[in-house]
Amino acid sequence: MNLKMNFNSSKIFENNDFVCDYLLSLSHISTLNGKLDLTAYVVMFVFATAANVILIHSMIKTKETRTNTAKLFLVMAITDLTICIILPFVHEFNIHFDTGKYTCTTYGVEQFFICFLGCSSTIFTFFITLDRFLFIRKSQWHQQMNDTYPIVMIMLVFTYIVSTGTGIAIFMLIYRHLHEQISKPSVVFFSALLVLYVFVLIAELTINISLIVYIRKQAKQLRNITNCQTSNNRHKKATKTVLMISFIQIITTLPPVHAFINVIIVFAREEHDKHMSRIYYMTTWLNIPIILSSLMNAIVFVHRNDKLKTFYKQKISKHKAALISWTGGLSEPDSVPTDNSTALNEL
Predict the structure, then answer these.
(1) How far is CA 251 from the centre of its chain?
(2) Cα(58)–Cα(309) distance, rounded to whole angstroms?
(3) 242-266 pLDDT per residue, tens
(4) What is the rounded CA–CA span in Å between residue 225 and residue 233?
(5) In Å, how far are 154, 246, 270, 281 from 196, measured between CA atoms?
(6) Considering the entire predicted model, what is its pTM?
């Protein structure tokens, strides 16, 4: 069925059932976009969930939660894991199972989770890059912050308040334009929070670009650091970690920033009835990098932390040895190694 948007611009979404059916048709499994959409969300769900489970498991087992960065990464991984489990099911329910009047509501719920995940991930990584930056440039400040436990709690409270507020803001914005049942002061308040979310994304983007510029300027100095200088090597590793996290944030923040700016412009001009498909495709596809950010942050932290890498190397070696033993690849258990180096390795 060929669906077209023919709404009266003086009355926002007069026929709500028609809008819901139209939204449903854009990404239904019968369409190419629906098949690609389903594949993308399933792949992201599997990899993001696996990466965050690996990170949480290794940090708990190794008790690697001493620094503020580690604490923030652990909380961010738990938050990302929770949202990554919920979001794909809400998204697929919205597209493939929900019909009629509830479609628009579940679409708003889906956007709430996307907004919450993006905002919390952005603020968490901002605090993480700030912590690493202080470790590189202001070691005394960094030590004082690590010794002050309430600092992390303040960061967490701030992150969840802003993330929840902006998530509710976008849900209310969608619900308002679909049902017109929310008072104007509420719309103004939640719209302001939505603008704050966009501001947070742009600020994060600006700060990370500034960090990359600073690190590039220090590149020559970093190349001259020798392996025997332990303290400098730690700073060098921290600098590279900040660079990697900053780069990830830039490539995963640009698409949702572009999407939200376009959505705000379209709604401000009251042209949403003409560009509903454009809004839907942007908020569906350009928000996927937010989930990608969750995946890549987990991979970076496991890869850059020697304690976590050693933990998993030992587990892999143990399972590999057990597999070889099970397949009969090992020598007889009564045999005694004669090579001293082999005996030492087994201690």
Answers:
(1) 12
(2) 9
(3) 777 777 777 777 777 777 666 666 6
(4) 7
(5) 19, 21, 21, 23
(6) 0.68
